[in-house]
Amino acid sequence: MSMQNSPYMVLWRTVQGQDVKDRRINRETLRRIVTFARPHRSLLTVFLVISVLTALLGVVTPILAGDVVNAITGGDEVSVVVWLAVAIAAVAVVDAALGILNRWLSSRIGEGLILDLRTAVYEHVQRMPIAFFTRTRTGALVSRLNNDVIGAQRAFSNTLSGVVSNIVSLLLTVVVMVTISWQVTALSMLLLPIFLVPARAMGGRLARLQREAAQHNASMSTQMTERFSAGGATLVKLFGRPETESAEFARRAGRVRDIGVRVAMLQTVFVTALTLVSALALALVYGLGGAQAILGNLDAGDVVTLALLLTRLYAPLTMLANARMDIMSAVVSFERVFEILDLVPLIQERPGARALPPGPASLEFDDVRFAYPSAEEVSLASLEDVAVLDSRGGEEVLHGVSFTVLPGQTVALVGSSGAGKSTIAQLVARLYDVTSGAVRIGGTDVRDATFASLRETIGMVTQDGHLFHESIRENLTLVRPEATDEQLWDALTRARMEHVIRALPDGLDTVVGERGYRLSGGERQRLTIARLLLAAPRVVILDEATSALDSTNEAYVQAALGEAMEGRTALVIAHRLSTIRSADQILVVEGGRIVERGRHAELLASGGRYAELYETQFADQEV
Ligand SMILES: Nc1ncnc2c1ncn2[C@@H]1O[C@H](COP(=O)(O)OP(=O)(O)OP(=O)(O)O)[C@@H](O)[C@H]1O
Q: Of all helices (H) and strands (E), which one includes residue 89?
């Protein structure tokens, strides 16, 4: 019995198929699956031909074995038996060779398909706008890349060859059996429904149990990742109820244990039943066929052939009975992958986009109105873990914002929380597109510029500057892969970080980020400033940290920011009086509008909104 048709494989398929019983196959999806399979078509053809050959060989051995028995009972010459034995051996050798070849082919095709799908999805996801990532659950996305891609691959390496070779094998087996004795064949097949009906019902139960176990496992790992992170553990220690949490965890783990036992038992029952039914059918063949042979209606060899063929009948029949569901579950995996590939990135490079003009760059907002895109425009319900996506478009958060930052000037944005300052900053780097109006750099609308030139021209430092869990060197060279150590140290010196990095045991090779070496808030921001200095963009957007830093750190950050703004066109979301004072222009943003603009002294003197803000936010920084 081949691997494909071992009782466990048959069981696995029965269970896999149950989830998708009621789905229908969509023609368009099939067409696209074929498109993905096309590059592998020559390998696929060889693979299918070999699958058919293997099925053919499977019928030959029982026939030869029958001939051996007939030669013995018929009193043939010894040489006949010897040649038959040689033929049986030859079939076995060829079968083994084909088996290995087929495994190689199926893994080449399967793994090739995984590669194609994975790279396609990865590349596509990278092109998605920020709005997509702010909504999507990362776990759901990663699982799409891992599990569904593998599910889709299974369609080719298992299901396709399984269906083809099982149909051929079944047809041949039945034809040969019927030719020998249709009565025995019919009777032995009568037992099949007795097995198939409960087997399908059991498949459903197994699928339900396994789904429940998967849910418990998922919630246990969510609980663990949330509670066992530094932040989560602190919260539990301070305010949590550790006993209740342990009890809940134990309840879930206990249910997983119970399901584990049930599943093991159900599986055993299934496999035993399959083995038992074919053993019973075998007894029937021996009894009925043997009686016929004694009565002279059959040869002894025919009985042997029938018995051997019978063992090849049940597994393919069970597999084919579940084939529709089998194919469906593969198609569903494909659909889930296609669902991601079909998301059109909201922000794309225009055909014919050009590089921003060289030289000093001005930044201009021209009557910009903006509303955040709705969930429906940017994401998928299945990736947000919600049933239906929010179709409401966001409310307009910028209502006609206009200003200009001349080349080399610094403009400070101030305003209360939620006024729209970060939104303005994000529009410059085209993390979002304006709803109406335009954002221009050096006179070119950012929507007409190439992504590469936007990346090159604009540098942004956010409050919580993200660092990858990699070495300091890798985090820095992200923006300039060819940078020399000398250039790295120069950037670090200007960002007032040199002495910090020099003091680290591994220097530039110290791993920082998520779980690496802990940098303080101020150090972190200076490191992201060093990254910006290395990139040397012409336009910088800075979001000053609101968090209070001690005076030394504060002075360092201030100096680093000064370096970052020096000689560049700068837009700063300012929280520090010193930045605001030295700005060429201050824009006071409230409720998505610029309500006042001017320099510090004149705005203060006019006694408007800026004067209020100064009193509440900045006056205490006055030394
Ligand atoms: N991703 C988003 N999707 C929908 N609405 C958003 C999103 N981000 C911000 N908003 C909304 O846009 C408005 C402006 O927010 P923004 O973050 O630009 O304010 P801000 O002035 O930078 O505030 P803060 O100083 O607190 O950072 C707020 O009403 C906010 O709720």
A: helix 78-126
